[in-house]
Recover the amino acids of this structure.
């Protein structure tokens, strides 16, 4: 089974999780990039407004075509209880191309159930698995057991071998 993990990350938490998932299920890794992204208050406020208004953001062309994969795993940070605008744009650009889907999100606090539900609705497809992890859980390493269950769901859906324990992702 060919698997693609597509994600957006501003702080690195979603990227870390995406890398662990990609390693755990031998997937290709696609970083969704916002070419206008920057640091500072202006960029933060623009991103916050886009998320609150359910708007997408300009994204760079992607390397992989999700239609070429049996399973696409999509990851987003939670912004103001919403999907990040670059992930929203990615999904809208590739709607109808996801054969099978899994979802994950990262956050500092709350909003996980809402964002996972919103992702499912936006993709118009029920996920075979979903995972939500807080920044604190990642810092404390508390997400590992749930991550292994998530990976087991991904691999079991294709009859593949069980995932290997988590390890650091090599530098890109």
């Amino acid at each position: 089974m060919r698997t693609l993990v597509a994600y957006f990350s501003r702080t690195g938490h979603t990227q870390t999780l995406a890398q662990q998932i990609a390693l755990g299920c031998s997937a290709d890794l696609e970083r969704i990039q916002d070419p206008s992204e920057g640091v500072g208050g202006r960029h933060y406020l623009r991103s916050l407004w886009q998320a609150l208004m359910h708007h997408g953001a300009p994204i760079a062309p992607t390397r992989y075509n999700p239609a070429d994969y049996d399973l696409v795993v999509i990851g987003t940070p939670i912004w103001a209880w919403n999907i990040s605008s670059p992930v929203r744009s990615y999904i809208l650009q590739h709607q109808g191309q996801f054969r099978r889907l899994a979802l994950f999100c990262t956050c500092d606090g709350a909003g996980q159930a809402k964002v996972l539900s919103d992702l499912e609705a936006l993709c118009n497809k029920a996920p075979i698995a979903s995972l939500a992890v807080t920044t604190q859980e990642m810092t404390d390493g508390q997400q590992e057991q749930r991550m292994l269950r998530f990976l087991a769901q991904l691999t079991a859906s294709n009859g593949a071998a069980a995932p290997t324990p988590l390890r650091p992702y090599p530098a890109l």
About this structure: The chain has one domain: 3-156. The two ends are 23 Å apart (CA to CA). The helical segments are 13-24, 41-52, 85-94, 112-123, 135-140, 144-156. Strands lie at 3-7, 28-31, 71-79, 82-83, 101-107, 129-134.
